[in-house]
Amino acid sequence: MSKKIVVLGAGTGGTIISNNLRRHLPEEWEITVIDRDDNHVYQPGMLFVPFDLQKTGTLTRSRKRYILPGINFVIDEITHVDTDKRTVKTKNHSFPYDFLVICTGCKIAPEENDGLMEAWGKNAFTFYSIEGADLLRQKLKEFDGGKLVLDIAEVPFKCPVAPIEFVFMADWYFRKKGIRKKVEIELVTPLTGAFTKPKASAVFGESAKEKNIKITPMFELNEVNGKEKYIESVQGDRISYDTLVIIPTTTGDEVISNSGLDDGIGFVPTHLNTLQALKRERVYVIGDATNVPTSKAGSVAHYEADVVVFNIMAEIHGIKPEEIYDGHSTCFIVYEKGTSSLIDFNYKIEPLPGKFPLPHMGPFSLLRETKANWYGKLGFEWLYWNVLLAGRHLGMPPTLVMAGKEIG
Ligand SMILES: Cc1cc2nc3c(=O)[nH]c(=O)nc-3n(C[C@H](O)[C@H](O)[C@H](O)COP(=O)(O)OP(=O)(O)OC[C@H]3O[C@@H](n4cnc5c(N)ncnc54)[C@H](O)[C@@H]3O)c2cc1C
């Protein structure tokens, strides 16, 4: 073995796993991580930009700064992956590997949604990009009443709690502005409710009702009509809007489909528990690039990285990878400036009430709106840059802990 590990993408997952691998492997193992640019974006902060609670300039930092010495960081476009020849091609180089970790994430593709580009930036906006979030901030500042619709175009999409957080924050923002009575807020989703998991969905649905936010489920977007300001479903239902906030169709990166590694919609078929790419040898996938049925979230990439480091080390020692990962995901759900909820779940166990991370002590509360959770959400940004990206452990296993959860 030539002892080369190549990591594709230096976002949340790629940075965490490169650093984690560097901490665990001797120097003879060469680790290369490739990304197209040097701009690492703290994506959770984009939620706060439209409500003027975060400045766009604070969200982007140099990737290099967060990649440990002893890792070869390459800035280049990844153009092809050949898993038979175990080689990655970029615009300017070629990288052979013994182990490959795919962390190319996913992205919004507004051009995939009929009619959206004509309305883009005029009466249709998004907060799923820095530029989009800033444009939406300006729009909301001018907004003096009318109907605000948030539409999720399609599943899967990144951070399934972000749309709920957005409409909750919009309720707070317009109350603070003193114009809430003049604003109708509606969340339109292809899901059966506010969230992917039924029990948490019922809790968030109840909160939405209290905040006078309408939720329209099972709406599969067919078209955006920016001229007449409506969205139309595949079934022909129409919902009018004054301002549309949209999570457009989400896809994996082209390099995944161009290399024949995808499931038909741009994501890599991945073993649910070992996180190996299916039918490929010595290839692992973490973060938003996988097709595993859990949230596309940074917490997930962090938990998955621990599992993949363990399994790569196992393979290096000639041991079979273990089926460890259970779909574990942890997410704050902001209710308004000052309070937040928190959920912790996996493939099988739905979000339950209780305390987190210390059983029975917290300080955070699960599936409840608290001030402590809000401070947790704010503190998470510091934790992200200083602890999580460094590939450090938080003293927690990567799988769901049932202690502290209230069952039944
Ligand atoms: C508005 C919003 C709010 C969010 N809030 C939360 C939250 O509160 N909590 C949470 O846990 N998660 C949250 N997330 C989700 C979280 O940010 C992502 O799930 C996480 O960043 C995924 O990590 P990743 O490594 O898979 O992808 P990314 O971090 O997106 O990294 C992928 C990297 O691959 C690179 N890349 C892709 N293709 C190529 C190529 N061909 N050549 C070179 N480089 C390439 C990209 O440049 C990018 O840097 C939020 C996301 C959004 C949009």
TrEMBL record:
InterPro entries: FAD/NAD-bd_sf, FAD/NAD-binding_dom, SQRD. One of its GO terms (molecular function) is oxidoreductase activity. Residues 4-294 form the FAD/NAD(P)-binding domain. Pfam families: Pyr_redox_2. Gene3D superfamilies: FAD/NAD(P)-binding domain. This is Oxidoreductase. It comes from Prosthecochloris marina. The lineage of its organism: Bacteria, Pseudomonadati, Chlorobiota, Chlorobiia, Chlorobiales.
